[in-house]
């Protein structure tokens, strides 16, 4: 019970908080559904998930908002893979997100 209490305090008692993984799934699916079928497999979700897991192993990323972390991982992957067809979608997500300026800082 002590450990459970510590975890609950760390998440500010927000038991139903949305995780970075859930944001990653949401953003990925939104980007995918706005592309033609032949271009949908350019970005690999498993690779994005692995990058998110790597971020969770570093203390500096634990302070980032989950939505900012997920969007930043996708933005960096798009740059690395040179998937320019996703750029417009990510910019749209950034503009519609409250975290627009925070995402710019993480890049």
From TrEMBL:
Domain of life: Eukaryota
Protein name: Cyclin G1
Organism field: Rhinopithecus bieti
């Amino acid at each position: 019970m002590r450990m459970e209490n510590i975890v609950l305090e760390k998440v500010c008692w927000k038991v139903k908080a949305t995780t970075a993984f859930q944001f990653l799934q949401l953003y990925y699916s939104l980007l995918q559904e706005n592309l033609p079928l032949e271009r949908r497999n350019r970005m690999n979700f498993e690779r994005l998930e692995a990058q998110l897991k790597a971020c969770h192993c570093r203390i500096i990323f634990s302070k980032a908002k989950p939505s900012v972390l997920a969007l930043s991982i996708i933005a960096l992957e798009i740059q690395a893979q040179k998937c320019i067809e996703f750029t417009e979608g990510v910019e749209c997500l950034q503009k519609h997100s409250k975290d627009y300026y925070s995402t710019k800082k993480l890049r």
